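In this section we walk through a basic example: taking a raw amino acid sequence and producing a predicted 3D structure, encoded as discrete structure tokens. The instruction is simple. Fold the sequence below.
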Amino acid sequence: MQQLLRFIGIGGSATVLQFVLLILFVQVFGINEVGASALSYALSAVYNYLMNYYLTFKSRQSHWHTAPRFAAVCALGLGCNTLVFALVFAMLPLYLIAQCVATAVTLCVNFLLHRYWIYRGDPS
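The resulting token sequence is shown next.
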């Protein structure tokens, strides 16, 4: 349970970091919104990976082993979020509720993929 709470906390802080960087890149540095969004997502994903690697899962595996899996999980997470959002929104056209459901489902999927695929075999 403590591991899940660390995972949620790091994910939440990565989300906050992404929004702060996005605003900073657009408002202070004048980067176009699409570029700023991509850059802020990429930087927050690196932060997310490193924090989970060292704090949540205390990994002893090499980054050569875990980083490609993390990238694949990021891609799967995007697909999962989009699919769940679309399905819920089609049944209940309230986008905030749909996003909450999609976020919850994606969180569970991401945690399981991190725990049992990316960091499999590391101490909990």
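Looking at the output, two observations stand out. The chain has a mean pLDDT of 84. The helical segments are 2-27, 33-56, 63-91, 95-118. In the next section we compare this with other chains.
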